[in-house]
């Protein structure tokens, strides 16, 4: 049925489909309603009809309903409360978008009565498996705090938990909640400081702005100032190259400044963000360097700030304001880019004025002639306000640089004959200020200005000339009385500011030349006595009592000459941005030059360095476990299943994957029951208590004897079970013989392992190590099933291309190249294997080649063993491991020889951060279904003709990224699977060809940043032949 409703006075004929039984009609209705909201129309009248559909099972419809409710829940609170039970149920929805939307709507209902419900929902969402839901929980914290500030302590607990989150999607939002709720709780940041620094590059852009702002305040409280004037900036604390012992003894000692590694970590990790496309991020990094970096390093921000001047005028205005503040203190860093601040004819007035301010700040003896020529052009501008600002700038240059004072004065005097009154008036004002610096040398200029007095009509200019003549009336004794005579004729029609200066001129002439001006002074004082302005009347009465002695005047008249003719200091022409540095750059307070609501001031640097150990995070050392291999019989395909710890005797098949059986075994082991399960457990327990020096054969024999003795005691076993047990024991013996007989520790591989070379050459499989956790007891069946469906495989394609690490010229004969062999790293399961080829291109032997101690913070690097000698022309290949933390951030370290140190960096390609995995098509679809919504990235691709064949497409895909090929039964669909090396998260890639040259590329992974980067690389590679 049809109905007509009015929105903002406009009649809309809408089909009432919200009450229809067809989901498609409801969906169409919601699309139209959301479209009205997007156009700014008020659709609040439809709230009752919309809220009925909140319990719909259609995901798309539910999303649109939640979009509507977020917009109007605060206005229609009573109706929204009726559906609060539905929102609570939606918090348990399998779809992460629905859970997040329900929490967003719940937090939008601004009713104090539901505060406990909101608090409970936020706590549950903070522990949600989806990072998107946790991000929404962080947003809800701010809403709840504004609704009820009494919940602050509980919210701080949630914030503390979310700050430990390792997801880049959550980091920015939780820091924003921290800034809103408890910005003074710096102690919450200590343990998370390094993690936030390392995650910064991968956080979304607005989150980067918030985190950088918070870390700026944090750093000002935790690190000492790098700007100490009496200190020596010496980060390596090494003696200068040319400094002799005698000079060192003769000079006073000053303590060298050594930068805190965490301070350097922040500066190093924010520097790449200067290349961000988001202007707010660039501005945030610029202010961080300005407030935290040593003075000699601030120059790195200049190019990025100048680049922002190509943006919109709103961006230019903010950037130029900050540059104007910086250029006052450090004009040298912007001087090479002076031409970037030249005014364009298309610039608006406020942009022109700021550029003029910067050019004036940059002026010095070397470039003043260029700047003054530029100013001469600006004075002729049709923009009167800009021309007046240019004249003020010329006056500032004349004040700051004494060599051009006369030149500027002569130029300003020429402007007095300009036809534009605004230019003339501003010139008079500036000349007046300049003449105060050298009044004795410029009496001719004062006479020239007096002659032009009749032609000048701007009140401020006329008042300035009158002040000059009155101040220096003794140097122009013939002109001053005549000017006063002319002013007496027009006194009643002048502006107030001109009248005040006329009264002052009359008083000064009365004291210096009373014979000629006594009657004129009395006449002007009588006119002022009856003026309409009370300011003029008060000034006139005061002057009369001061200069004309009588019985009532008192003792003040004796000091009239000292009061009116006192020498006055010359005014200082200063920049309007001089005092803005008291505000943090890039803030609203800096823009408006006033403290805004919510502004957090930067604290002063601490005098003594606080304890840096508060930022140390305790890392639990993994317990040494012996690797054993168990033959898994869970599936039809027999796989080797690795497990940490010694092998327990296997129980019956029905108990192998049973949680209850495992728990019963553990419980009965503690009570000492004589059942079969307890016997097996005790056998394993006694076997585990034996010393590590015993051989595996003895352990196997002991287990066999124990099992057989227990088996004899049990009377209810059949012959079939005995045969099965004997078979399992034989398989177990074989597995133990194949197992490595040394113990591993995580990230510490053995130096001489008997199976190391064998494992490297064994390309048919690479077993994944399962680590035993002491926390929650995991379902053993699920763990084995996951292991069986996702297996790390050998690389399908290994690129042989190498990348230059160190050029032979830079390395003084030592050349280094690196490449990724795409093999599991033997130094740690979270590390990427990297092979270095070192070549001695010099004519002498290089000794002690190694990696220095100074490496990237936050990245675990396993160094190769030191190379004692490398003869001329010789090459050597070594391997190393790097934990990139699933990020493309470069690993920086020092390549050292006996005599030199060279700073190098390895930049990983996103495709090298994976290990290929094999899985069935069914498992691929199952895992892909779990990674929908925010975890899915897709794009339409156009492929080169050479890449359309099956073999060519697969080769191109695996050459870009280290992925495994998943078999598929469809001709036009290709699937690839991998896992990230550091976190082990799955990366699923599928290519669906729609025709011969185009298709759909889809990537599913929880690492959304890696997914988007991989999508870009694959899309580019497929488009190239």
Helix content: 40-55%
The computed structural class is alpha+beta
Distance between the termini: 58 Å
Biggest pleated sheet:
7 strands, antiparallel
Strand content: 5-15%
Number of strands: 23
The general outline is globular
List low-pLDDT spans. 1-15, 230-252, 621-718, 734-785
Average pLDDT rating: 77
Write a structural description.
Residues 671-688 have a biased composition (Low complexity). Residues 913-1023 form the Beta-adaptin appendage C-terminal subdomain domain. Belongs to the adaptor complexes large subunit family. It comes from Denticeps clupeoides (denticle herring). It is found in: Cytoplasmic vesicle, Clathrin-coated vesicle membrane; Golgi apparatus. By secondary structure, the chain is an alpha+beta fold. 47% of the residues lie in helices and 12% in strands. It has 41 helices and 23 strands. The strands form six sheets. Strands 8, 18, 19, 20, 21, 22 and 23 form a seven-stranded antiparallel sheet that branches. A five-stranded antiparallel sheet has the order 9-10-11-15-13, with no helix packed on it. A hairpin with a 6-residue loop joins strand 5 (625-632) and strand 6 (639-644). Helix 7 runs parallel beside helix 9 (152-163), helix 33 (659-671) packs across helix 34 and helix 40 (950-960) crosses helix 41 (1008-1023). It is globular. Mean pLDDT is 77; it is low at 1-15, 230-252, 621-718 and 734-785.
